[in-house]
Amino acid sequence: MMYFFQNFVLRAWFLNWRSRITNSTLYLSEAIEAQEETHPLRKLHTKELIRYNFGTSFSNYCEQKAIPHGWLPSIPRTLEMKIAPQAWLRLAVLLGLNVKFVLCLVRNESILIFCRGVGYARVVCRLQPVIELLSSAILVVMTCLHQQQDRSVKWLMYYNFPAFSCLFVLGGLMSLSLDALDSREKFSAVLFNVKLVSLTAFSVCAPTVQTTFLEYLEEQPCHTHVPLRSAMAEYVCVASLLVFSAIQLGDLRGLRIVVPSLAEDQAPSCSTSYSPALLALEPSALPSKNAGTSSSA
């Protein structure tokens, strides 16, 4: 009984206590004992199932598993491991969060001017800016979360891309439906087809991107490369997103933004509605044409 306590219970307690402080020390006796098939450290030393976090345990995992030949860099993995790409993409997304939302509001208001009687147009024009805002906000979360630093909200990383994909496709379909109602300029079938192809390509490649990213969250490899098929799916999704957003900016051709607070200042000074914001005159205090005519009489 004493032998069992000294060699198993006390030793297990000591190893557990030591693992809380450091995991960089390797005892030769442990390596020899781990060669037995029934030893609990057998799988750890043979490197079959357990991944060592960035080479901090027993040997460098990054050197043991090199980058396979023919693989290409993955965009989500690069954002996870590299600081500079994540910072630049985060800045671009934050700028797009404000600009795209405002431009979407401007375009939809211009469509409502010519389509007041269409109930469908009113619903879509009010709902699309909200969809654009939500998709951009989720994209910001995707560029900010890190699975090692944000472990309390790591579960969000499993649902960010599916939620963004659904909102992006839904907002794209709304944008396509509004193209036919936009009477400011002639309908372009070429741009409509390009936007439709971009949405279709994004929808087809999005499941592959999500599957690859889930594998990354589970396996946590040290390199950023993925197989050719998975990498091409990610590149197609990014290209489709950029092409669709660029065409959306082209839909704003010919629009002018007029600040409402300056609308009265643009009226002629001889008009009865002329009331500069700095003067803050009431309409009743302004001279009317009838009063001027009666006084002259």
TrEMBL record:
It comes from Ancylostoma ceylanicum. One of its GO terms (cellular component) is endoplasmic reticulum membrane. This is Uncharacterized protein. GO terms for biological process: GPI anchor biosynthetic process. It comes from the Eukaryota. The keyword Nucleotidyltransferase does not apply. The chain crosses the membrane at residues 87-106, 157-178. Keywords: Membrane, Transmembrane, Transmembrane helix.
